[in-house]
Amino acid sequence: MILALALSLAMPVIEAEAQDPPPFKPKVPLTFATEARMVNLTVTARGVDGKLVKDLTSGDFTIYEDDTPQRIQFFARVFDPSRAADEGQEGAPDPTAIDLGMLFDTSTSMADVLNLSQNAAASFLESIPRARALTTVFFDSDIRLSKYNSESQQGLFDRLQKAKSTGDTLLRDAIAVYLSRISDDPGRKIVVLFTDGEDTKSLISTGELKDLVRSSTVTIYPIVFAGKYSDSTAALQAKALMRELADLTGGEVFVPRTFKDLAPIYAGLLDELAAQYVIGYIPAVDPAPGEHRLRVDVERAGVKVRYRRGYRVAPPEKEEKKK
To answer: I need a labelling partner for 95 at 20 to 30 A (CA). Which of 130, 167, 244, 281 fits?
Structure first.
């Protein structure tokens, strides 16, 4: 069912790249195969004072999968000057590099705050260090996806300023389309979502979207604006979904009211991205199809961590075909 829905999402997608894009082929289900593979976590740590903790080591962490401790086989700190000499060497990709996804809601419900959203996105692009890869998705009644490399990201500013508010909202479909295009390269998959959270026309359901998110390695940071119908029941439910997506992936929700709110939001988000940990392990037992819970404990007193709460393993292919 999810595969059929994801394939149907290909129809409204307009894609632009520096080179001719390949045909749209969603990598669905976005789930681990039943054979063992590395499980990667992006972890943010803060002390009791709320400040970021940057000096933890692998020995400070214990990873549990379904309450069973796992042996950490990969560990990297973003804030680690000793790694600088290795960066850029051929055959040694930076495991902390960022593949950035920026999703922009340009639907009618965003009309009153579109200018604020445009300024927010432009300011964020000016502030964040160049990503290894940048994928943008503009969505309303259509989904328009573009890819930029580190040299071509400047061209996005013009697209941002020319965006117009129109049409319905394909929010869940847009997230699903983005998830289908995530690369398998090592590194952090960061999504910044500019929206009021409402959805009017998506084909994919909330439950199916959550399954796709659980099956990915993204960290989602929704920046949620007060849209045209911000006091409606649907809008409140939409904001709750944004909070849940952030919680599932180890991200955080931001709610700017005016342009003045944006600077501290960016400062906090950039500080967080510069202080994260990337931790990997291969499950001690081959994971069975279904959901698997993750827990990260830290030995240092008073340290709290955010991370994705689990992952999903696809059923064997033959079982998928029987459904």
So the answer is: 244
